[in-house]
Amino acid sequence: VKFVYDFTEGNKELKDLLGGKGANLAEMTNLGLPVPPGFTITTEACKVYLDSGDEPAALRDEVSAHLSALEKTMGKKLGQADDPLLVSVRSGAKFSMPGMMDTVLNIGLSDKSVQGLAKQSGDDRFAWDSYRRLIQMFGKTVLGVDGELFEDALDKAKETKKVTVDTDLDAAELKKLVTKFKKIVKSEAGRDFPQDPREQMDLAIHAVFDSWNTDRAKLYRRQERIPGDLGTAVNVCSMVFGNLGPDSGTGVAFTRDPASGQQGVYGDYLQNAQGEDVVAGIRNTVPLADLEQIDKKSYDQLMQIMETLETHYKDLCDIEFTIERGQLWMLQTRVGKRTAGAAFRIATQLVDQGLIDEAEALQRVNGAQLAQLMFPRFDEDAKVEQLGRGIAASPGAAVGKAVFDSYTAIKWSRSGEKVILIRRETNPDDLDGMIAAEGILTSRGGKTSHAAVVARGMGKTCVCGAEDLEVDTKRRRLTVNGHVVEEGDVVSIDGSTGKVYLGEVPVVPSPVVEYFEGRMHAGADDADELVKAVHRIMAYADRVRRLRVRANADNAEDALRARRFGAQGIGLCRTEHMFLGERRELVEHLILADTDEERENALKELLPLQKRDFIELFEAMDGLPVTVRLLDPPLHEFLPDITELSVRVALAESRKDHNENDLRLLQAVHRLHEQNPMLGLRGVRLGLVIPGLFTMQVRAIAEAAAERKNAKGDPRAEIMIPLVGTVQELEIVREEAEQVIADVERTTGVALKLALGTMIELPRAALTAGQIAEAAEFFSFGTNDLTQTVWGFSRDDVEASFFTAYLEKGIFGVSPFETIDKDGVGKLVRDAVAAGRATRPDLKLGVCGEHGGDPESVHFFHEVGLDYVSCSPFRIPVARLEAGRAAS
Ligand code: ADP
Ligand code: MG
Ligand code: MG
Asked: Which residues form the PEP-utilising enzyme C-terminal domain (predicted)?
């Protein structure tokens, strides 16, 4: 195998092997763009290193060969004393992990070659600045020295000189700083800073390999669901220098606005600086547009390159560049991250520009982004007290208590508080706090700062660079125009406008929801750009998807909303709510009945109430299928709480005040008490042991359907039996149901076509699906219970008790209750689909667990050939979109 690729050898399709950065550096090189020469060590080499603890045997020679070639191209040798070649050693995994991995610049500098660099550049200050940066970065990321020690030494040097920025330190001071830095290395790392350039390079390469497994990299991967075994590539890239004076500099840019999708000049530029200075927010950057004044030639060239990249990648790109004495160099590009709204707008803009087609546009967006766009926003008409304004870095409306450090953010959020994490700027150590917070507010940094990039990736609201805000983390407060916000005070931040408010600002629904609700029309001239884009992409998704999308809805109101959101029926109508409220008393009568007559009377009273519910529901869903699930939960859920009732009875006893009903109730509660009710008397088991219960429900459905038909409606009821484990259970219920339906047809004179089917939510049902299909016209996979029973996880308990530990240990990347476990639960679904269809080719198949609205799971259900997914009304647009993406 080949472990090293020259930049001229790779291309953008090789991300698995060369990482994103390496693949795109190669792509740019081959596009003829100005990229400093270099080579990439593959992720395969990294994997060998991580697995065995040592680099593959062939790597050293391969690196030597590529280094020699690079030295030849550049006409100087790595670390050569009189004129050193310097390189950066840069991490770069398949998926970009901003700020997560390590990069070391200026490799090749030593006590000797720093002199050579000074002579060659004619700039002492520059040479010593580069050297102190190398020791600092190398010390921190390769030798594991606490970075603060270097920072403090640098701050002290600035204080002594009474200057505020590092560029004001002269060569002599930087030279002193180098001596100081070397001392820090020696005492902290227990070794000298290596003077041999090749040793520097090799150690840095290993450090990049190792950085794949740092805690913060692992945390980021879990958050982003990036597999843990991909490894990172390492790029060795000849250095270009942005710190060579005012005609040099470094910057970042986007080919269009990552927040709105608007085309234009977006980015930040920093004169006389090296790469990391921009992202770290050490000095204040200027807007990229200012570069036109500073260096028109480089500016024009950059604009040209940005257009080339957009046309080539057919997408928004982000870019890192450096200008060395008027010469522009490209250091990185990739398809840029963007906000959810921008994703939809950019996709349709690119269609209009003829760069991509509609099918591609559909792939450029996803359900998670659509879900984000359905979040509410701040009410524009609300009376607000604006504290300040920063950069709109990641959209959303977040309200919470101000906290000034990650620890407090985590602590408070664990106890149920909503918090806004306020920092001067964030760094990778703040990741946990950012995850815990509702939103993130910083006073420094631009759209490309750590806070902004990470928040956008997480879909968290973020306002950054709110410079009026003086953040005092030590005293846990911020001051703005004489106003003081203390820890715990409520603030509201708007990630779409960058505005920061004091107190709680009320929120209003998003325009995308207004559109789905039918209150805003995409065709209207003044319709929001975003709404138009969403409309177009949804229309395309609906055209190509095969999966139908139904709603889980229990009443007419939810059903109507679901219909507006595009539901093509109800996949799960739970009937338990029809037994609650004032009807609870009737249910008590049913449970307490001693004689058949008492029981029948109770059922007789429930019948018309249920029937009315169904009439309303069938009317709301006229012409579309409605799957009604017969009663599922254990009966004790309808009875008073055992402790409460015991106390009441005991009190009455002591007053010699017998309440016959309470006593009977208490007996019933004791009788029905189960250690493990979720595996107890529920579902079809209720129907089998409580005579008349299921038949009453079937009668209510049948009579309601008959009445709707008489009213010229088109009811399409489907009756679903829950928690079946064997076909025998289903056969008994089915026979009784058929008799009732026949009876209703006779008495009403209306012919009814009511489908009878079952949920597949127990392993045994899935394993015997072939038999069960003989008695079922449809299956609906109840993946919540199925996950619970296949894993043996109590769904009400485990998420709070040990799932965090499981997630941290990487046992699974995401809760199996959120995204279907394809290998286990999914295998049962897949096999049951095949077995069911083998018995009954026209068997209708759907899913009604929470997974029905989860993007990744929707793709799975498409793939195994279900007919529909059913989810909560709010998730319907997401399911429609993902069903479209799965099909195209
Ligand atoms: P990250 O993945 O964190 O962006 P990079 O490898 O891109 O890390 O490098 C960090 C910074 O150093 C970037 O600003 C980059 O532009 C700059 N940089 C990397 N390599 C070079 C180089 N050869 N010459 C000049 N600057 C460089
Ligand atoms: Mg970079
Ligand atoms: Mg269930």
From this structure: 532-884
